[in-house]
């Protein structure tokens, strides 16, 4: 945990502890650091830590056991609700971004079929293996980073400078989507098979199949978004 710069803002302390729970630093059932320890690491008063723990208990992240301390109750007690609300607010913009991604990545993979090397293809395969491992343990931060890297690499191996630059602009705006989407386990799992199909199509140097695999993958992303909105 990083020290809180401005004191005594309990919301910052809540976020700091919550993020450590969500990223797996502290697992479910694990005892959290003592008030004294957190006072030192976060540079806040003991009363602020106590208030933060009470808030986290109300949110469902923490269980306070008298005489024993604070324990992690859940790493995502209300995540589905938070994800649903976020998608409802951002859905129109995200739909536009996905449509642009379909255009960029469909053209990129079509070119990559001809221009990419075996070494570049193997890099994509290796990235996807790491992504699958992250899905298995539901490491949201790692999944989001690896998915972004997978798609960035896919565009990079087209060796088309304009597509690469356009993709970097869209990718920046898409970061939050990935982190929110992958908090829903089914959404994370839904990316595995499409990635494998993309790799199979690219590996066979089949343009038509490659373009179709990208379009299918990103259309599924739109469907995942719609399902979250409709729940």
Walk me through the structure.
The chain is mainly alpha-helical and 231 residues long. The chain folds into two domains: 10-72, Arc Repressor Mutant, subunit A (Orthogonal Bundle); 79-230, GntR ligand-binding domain-like (Four Helix Bundle (Hemerythrin (Met), subunit A)). Helices cover 74% and strands 3% of the residues. The protein has ten helices and two strands. It has helices spanning 10-22, 35-42, 46-59, 79-115, 118-136, 140-156, 161-181, 185-189, 192-203, 207-230, and strands spanning 62-65, 69-72. Strands 1-2 form a two-stranded antiparallel sheet. A hairpin with a 3-residue loop joins β1 (62-65) and β2 (69-72). α1 packs across α3 (46-59), α4 (79-115) packs parallel to α6 and α4 (79-115) runs antiparallel to α10. The protein is elongated and about 65 Å long. The protein starts with 9 loop residues before the first helix and ends with a helix. Mean pLDDT is 86; it is low at 4-8.
Lateral arrangement of strands in the main beta sheet = 1-2
In total, the number of strands is: 2
The low-confidence parts are 4-8
State the helical fraction: over 70%
The CATH topology of the largest domain turns out to be Four Helix Bundle (Hemerythrin (Met), subunit A)
Shape, principal axes of CA atoms: elongated
Name given to the CATH homologous superfamily of the largest domain: GntR ligand-binding domain-like
* Chain oligomer state: single chain
The radius of gyration is 21 Å
Average pLDDT: 86
> How many helices does DSSP assign?
10
- Which CATH top level class of the largest domain fits? Mainly Alpha
Tell me what portion of residues adopts beta-strand conformation.
Answer: under 5%
């Amino acid at each position: 945990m990083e020290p809180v710069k401005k004191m005594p803002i309990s919301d910052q302390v809540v976020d700091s502890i919550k993020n450590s729970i969500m990223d797996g630093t502290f697992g479910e059932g694990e005892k959290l650091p003592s008030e004294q320890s957190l006072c030192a690491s976060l540079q806040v008063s003991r009363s602020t830590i106590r208030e933060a723990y009470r808030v986290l208990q109300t949110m469902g992240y923490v269980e306070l056991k008298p005489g024993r301390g604070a324990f992690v109750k859940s790493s995502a007690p209300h995540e589905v609700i938070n994800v649903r609300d976020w998608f409802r607010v951002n859905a129109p913009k995200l739909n536009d971004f996905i449509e642009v991604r379909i255009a960029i990545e469909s053209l990129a993979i079509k070119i990559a079929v001809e221009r990419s090397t075996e070494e570049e293809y193997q890099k994509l395969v290796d990235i996807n293996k790491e992504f699958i491992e992250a899905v298995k343990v539901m490491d949201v931060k790692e999944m989001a980073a690896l998915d972004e890297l997978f798609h960035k690499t896919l565009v990079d191996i087209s060796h088309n400078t304009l597509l690469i630059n356009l993709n970097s602009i869209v990718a920046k705006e898409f970061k939050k989507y990935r982190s929110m989407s992958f908090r829903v386990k089914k959404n994370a799992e839904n990316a595995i098979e499409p990635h494998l199909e993309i790799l199979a199509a690219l590996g066979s140097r089949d343009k038509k199949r490659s373009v179709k695999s990208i379009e299918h993958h990103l259309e599924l992303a739109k469907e995942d978004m719609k399902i979250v909105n409709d729940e």
